Amino acid sequence: MPSKNWIIRNPGGKNRVLVTKELPGQLWLDRLTAAGCRVEICTSTRLLRPSEIREAIGQNCRAVIGQLTEAWDRQLLACLKAAGGRIYSNMAVGFNNVDLEAATEIGLPVGNTPGVLTETTAETTAALTLAAARRIGEAERFLRAGSFTGWLPGLFLGKLLWGQTLGVVGAGRIGTAYAKTMLQGHRMNLVYYSRRRSAELQRFVSAYNAFLRTEGQEPLGCRRAESLEELLQTADVVSLHTPLNDSTRHQIDARRLSMMKTGAVLINTSRGPVVDEAALVAHCRDNPEFRAGLDVFEEEPDLKPGLTDLENVVLLPHIGSATGWTRRAMATLAATNCAGLLLGYPLWSKDDMLPFLEQDPPRATPSIVNPEVLKK
Ligand code: DGY
Predict the structure, then answer these.
(1) Both 208 and 135 in a single domain?
(2) pTM of the entire structure?
(3) Could you tell me the distance, in angstroms and rounded to a whole number, from the CA of residue 58 to the centre of ligand 1?
(4) Which of 93, 230, 238, 281 has the smallest set of CB atoms within 10 Å of its CB?
(5) What are 201-217's pLDDT values in tens digits?
């Protein structure tokens, strides 16, 4: 039994499951209880050290629900496996904090929580885009500081998004939802950079253009960029939606920043290290017309020196998926991944995760990112 700061739910359950942070809602706990789990929850908001997690795992632990702030490296994953662990479940869609190769070698399934934060994160991305383009943070600080002495023709002139070109890097679920929002809301033309052509985006824009034509309006453009460079040179707003891996670390560096339009807007709600943050600080300092909106940082929760001094940058504390509905849904999926595996349920084969939020969920395990381990 771990030391203080841990509470126990369903103490009589036979499968011991650790949860490294308190989670919102009740359904997640009901799922684990129904699967015969004794649930031990850490009530501290402090980031746990790996040694504390190892100590909490002990000799007997079937599953852990962990957070993106924890580094689940080979040692920690091996410790869970040695304690009888059947799954590590990340309460996030991203899993760059997990050594997936090691988990797969060790034979430990890794769960994540896709499909329930798509629109929520797309909305945060849209909010950051508008805030950066229209200087919302800067203007609010000015007002709160008592500097507003009345309307002026030239006060806080921002950038109009209507009819401009949107560049979306990574046309997965969130990038696609964000692109649809910005195209419909601001009639932006789309250029996207993605490994594959997005049939969904192409279909969406064709259908939307058919509607615009019936209204006698100009259709919107939509094309896949040949290269990231081409997108960066063309777009007025660039939004990053790539997963973090070795090939996307510092994808936006000083060289690529210098290719962007001097008055462009750069938005990052993916993972901090996708952008070379020190290079971004220098770029924003040298180009006051450039704007950035960041929800994620290279060394969270720390920010690179100079970032908070810049008026042309809008900063959020990694709240892309922070709505009550989404966080309860993420907790439910993370727990259902554990329950599903412990009950021996097969892997869910559809994209739609909403059935798992019902009181009577499918008898399946929602999302395992290394499903090959289940075949062994
Ligand atoms: C995720 O799920 O990967 C997000 O970053 C959490 O909001």
Answers:
(1) yes
(2) 0.96
(3) 28
(4) 230
(5) 999 999 999 999 999 99
